[in-house]
Amino acid sequence: QGQEKLSCNPKKENGTHVVLCELGNPMKAGARITVDMELSVSGLEDVGDAITFHLQLRSKNSPSPTNASVTVTVPVEAEAEMELRGNSLPATTVLPTSWQGVEGSRRLEDHGIKVEHIYELHNKGPGTVSGVTLSLAVPHLLGDHVLLYLLELGTTGGMSCSHHPALNPAQV
């Protein structure tokens, strides 16, 4: 007839997370109860594309192997928006038309003007992300001439990085 809040208690049973809810005590024979449950589950980043709940109705008064049970599978969709920000220091670089690199030199200034490119990858949420791959294609040759001498590549914030073999070929 009316609506009541259930008293539910989480616990672990045989390595499984279980939530026990008391539906009524005593309950009259033939009683019909409808239960709406809202579950909040965290840590779903690596569960795949669905999570399964096993629901079972058990009576303390008359244990029976035919206790009603049902399995409910709920699809999981992760949602996160990534944002890439980039910056070059200096923002503009102009090389003189007569400039030539010095072959065999190991000094930075003999290979051109230093330009630093900084990229920041941000998760704008709402979910967390893992296993993100960012690929940057940087033009380092123009025909047979060096356009940008790629010196080094670094990361911060616990990321790993792999690079193209053309990185610092003259070991400057």
UniProtKB/TrEMBL annotation:
* Keyword line: Glycoprotein, Integrin, Membrane
Subcellular localization is given as: Membrane
Q: Where is the Integrin alpha second immunoglobulin-like domain?
A: 3-76
InterPro entries linked: Integrin_alpha_Ig-like_2, Integrin_alpha_Ig-like_3, Integrin_dom_sf
Gene Ontology cellular-component annotations: external side of plasma membrane; integrin complex
User: How is it placed in the membrane, per its record?
Assistant: Single-pass type I membrane protein
Provide the Integrin alpha third immunoglobulin-like domain boundaries: 83-171
Q: Does the keyword Transferase apply?
A: no
GO molecular function terms attached to this record: integrin binding
> Per its UniProt record, what Pfam families does this chain match?
Integrin_A_Ig_2, Integrin_A_Ig_3
- Biological process (GO), any one: cell-cell adhesion
The highest taxon in the source lineage is Eukaryota
Query: What PANTHER family does the database record attribute to this sequence?
Result: INTEGRIN ALPHA, INTEGRIN ALPHA-IIB
Listed name of the protein: ITA2B protein
Please report the organism this UniProt entry assigns to the protein.
Melanocharis versteri (Fan-tailed berrypecker)
Gene name of this polypeptide: Itga2b_1
